[in-house]
């Protein structure tokens, strides 16, 4: 049986929008098992990015708690941040630094020794085919390569949990498939992954379980096969369309 | 919290900031300041005396321009910060590192102070060359000079955080400079001492006591020109540190709230 790595308990997030309070995450409870890939699915505005950002401690929740290995992450925030890696949807690499400097600095910020940084740098530069772009500035790279650098930056300290927010958005199909291989490779290494995506084929191919969000609440959480069985559909896309129809009828 | 690890991360962030500053901005920054100061000093020291202004005004302006450089630097760093939030948003990455958000802003303040201080020190030889015999450095004491430069640099840093927290977006950024920074600078002792203003317009002089720049200007003038005619040096330094703490804390707190960070 898989052990629980992370557990969200009654998480809510209320935001101020035009001086009005809006609940973007509404009392969410779920857990993530060690070594699994969990896909966060949902329409635009469902709360996928907010939920992944809460887990990445980019924002604090308005209420509720997130437990990592049974401990509240807010009790020792810095230690928790050393255990996770976060790739935001928007590529926020430092364009004043080269690819190598971005990765080296990421290792230093995480407190790694220079010898370890050298090893990790070598490993990820080779693994993600960045040899040619060592000394390139991130803003000169194509979307796919910049995304790989972002992955490498998040992985420099070998995190236990990787949070990927729309990692393949806006990329060509063949680059998307290359990045899927990267994600599968990370899973093979034992990294637990939270994958936020609105590509249903991506979730179907990569995720062990998918969590469908709707207006800030969890609508469904199951394996892709389980969801297809429940709804008697052949693809996650059909399941999703069915859910939207049900929502419209309700 | 593991303070040792946090300080190590802060140190690395500061090192990266300084590396980028010296690599990409430092030379331009010093050149820009040198051009600005040279124009100001040539006019104040060689042209205005010929149309009736006192010769000593050149040195008064020159000394004030050291603090002016630090003061106006806060504008540039605020613009950079806002531009990053609206653009690349590397700030979000830095705020996801293993340091609490308030510590990140302490690091920012430290960096802003250093990046304001170093170019200001670099233009001092230029000031001496332009003013030459009109600027007597023999009566300058090292300790008060170091104290005032550090205090003024932290004032620039605290003001940067404050301004950044008040600027909504890039569209409204000019409003802050015209509505806030310019009046602050004009009435902040850069053109005349506080006692001079007191004689001419006592009400404005008393209102200007809430302007922290005034204390930085008065104290730098004391260091170079002596205590007579200026606010007491150590009182100015004390009040300025009080302002630094208040506006810096307020700015950082507002930014943490605005960015909604943990």
Set out the fold topology:
The complex is a heterodimer of chains A (250) and B (262).
Chain A: E1 4-17, E2 20-33, E3 37-42, H1 48-55, E4 63-68, E5 71-72, H2 77-83, E6 84-87, H3 99-109, H4 114-127, H5 143-155, E7 161-165, H6 173-188, E8 192-196, H7 200-206, E9 209-214, E10 217-222, H8 224-231, H9 236-249
Parallel strand pairs in A: 3-8, 3-9, 6-7, 7-8
Antiparallel strand pairs in A: 1-2, 1-4, 4-5, 9-10
Helix pairs in contact in A: 3-4, 3-5, 8-9
Chain B: H1 3-47, H2 56-86, H3 90-94, H4 101-122, H5 124-131, H6 142-166, H7 173-186, H8 194-200, H9 202-207, H10 212-225, H11 233-259
Helix pairs in contact in B: 1-2, 1-4, 1-5, 2-4, 2-6, 2-7, 2-10, 4-6, 4-11, 6-10, 6-11, 10-11
The coarse silhouette of chain B is: globular
Spatial sequence of strands, sheet with the most strands of chain A: 6-7-8-3-9-10
Radius of gyration of chain A: 18 Å
Order of SSEs of chain A: EEEHEEHEHHHEHEHEEHH
CATH architecture term of chain A: 3-Layer(aba) Sandwich
Return residue spans of chain B where pLDDT drops below 50 for at least 5 consecutive residues.
none
| Helix-and-strand structural type of chain A | alpha/beta
Structural class of chain B: mainly alpha
Number of strands of chain B: 0
Quaternary form: heterodimer
Distance from first to last alpha carbon of chain A: 37 Å
Q: What is the percent of helical residues of chain B?
A: over 70%
Strand content of chain A: 25-35%
Count of separate DSSP helical elements of chain B: 11
Beta percentage of chain B is under 5%
Low-confidence stretches of chain A: none
**N-to-C SSE string of chain B, H for helix and E for strand:** HHHHHHHHHHH
Indicate how many domains the architecture of chain A comprises: 1
Average pLDDT score of chain A:
92
């Amino acid at each position: 049986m898989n052990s629980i790595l992370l557990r969200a308990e009654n998480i809510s997030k209320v935001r101020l929008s035009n001086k009005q309070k809006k609940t973007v995450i509404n009392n969410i409870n779920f857990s993530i098992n060690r070594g699994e890939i969990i896909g966060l699915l949902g329409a635009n505005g469902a709360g996928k990015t907010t939920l992944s950002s809460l887990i990445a401690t980019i924002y604090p929740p308005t209420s509720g708690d997130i437990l990592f290995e049974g401990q509240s992450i807010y009790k020792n925030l810095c230690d928790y941040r050393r255990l996770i890696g976060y790739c935001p949807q928007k590529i926020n690499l430092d364009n004043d630094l080269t690819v190598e400097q971005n990765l080296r600095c990421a290792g230093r910020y995480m407190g790694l020794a220079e010898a370890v940084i050298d090893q990790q740098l070598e490993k990820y530069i080779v693994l993600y085919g960045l040899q040619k772009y060592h000394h390139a500035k991130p803003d000169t790279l194509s979307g796919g390569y910049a995304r790989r650098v972002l992955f490498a930056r998040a992985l420099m300290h070998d995190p236990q949990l990787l949070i990927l927010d729309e990692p393949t958005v806006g990329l060509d199909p063949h680059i998307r498939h290359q990045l899927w291989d990267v994600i599968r490779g990370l899973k093979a290494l034992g990294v637990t992954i939270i994958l936020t995506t609105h590509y249903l084929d991506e979730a179907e191919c990569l995720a062990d379980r998918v969590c469908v969000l709707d207006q800030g609440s969890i609508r469904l959480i199951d394996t892709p096969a389980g969801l297809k069985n429940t709804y008697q559909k052949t693809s996650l896309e059909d399941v999703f369309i069915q859910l939207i129809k049900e929502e419209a009828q309700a | 919290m593991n303070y040792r690890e946090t300080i190590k991360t802060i140190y690395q962030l500061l090192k990266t900031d300084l590396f980028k500053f010296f690599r990409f901005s430092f030379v331009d920054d010093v050149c820009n300041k040198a051009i600005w100061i040279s124009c100001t000093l040539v006019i104040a020291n060689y042209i205005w005396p010929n149309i009736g202004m006192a010769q000593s005004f050149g040195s008064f302006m020159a000394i004030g321009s050291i603090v002016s450089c630090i003061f106006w630097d806060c504008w540039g760093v605020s613009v950079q910060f806002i531009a990053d939030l609206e653009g690349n948003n590397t700030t979000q990455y830095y705020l996801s590192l293993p340091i609490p958000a308030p510590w990140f802003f302490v690091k920012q303040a430290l960096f802003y102070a250093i990046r304001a201080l170093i170019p200001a020190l670099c233009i001092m030889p230029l000031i001496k060359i332009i003013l030459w015999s009109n600027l007597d450095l023999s009566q300058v004491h090292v300790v008060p000079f170091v104290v005032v430069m550090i205090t003024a640099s932290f004032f620039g840093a605290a003001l940067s955080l404050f301004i950044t927290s008040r600027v909504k977006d890039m569209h409204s950024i000019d409003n802050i400079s015209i509505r806030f920074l310019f009046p602050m600078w004009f009435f902040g002792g850069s053109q005349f001492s506080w006692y001079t203003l007191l004689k001419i317009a006592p009400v404005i002089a008393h209102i200007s006591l809430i302007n922290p720049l005034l204390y930085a200007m008065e104290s730098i003038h004391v260091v170079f020109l002596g205590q007579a005619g200026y606010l007491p040096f150590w009182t100015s330094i004390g009040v300025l540190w009080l302002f630094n703490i208040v506006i810096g804390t307020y700015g950082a707190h507002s930014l943490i709230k605005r960015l909604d960070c943990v």
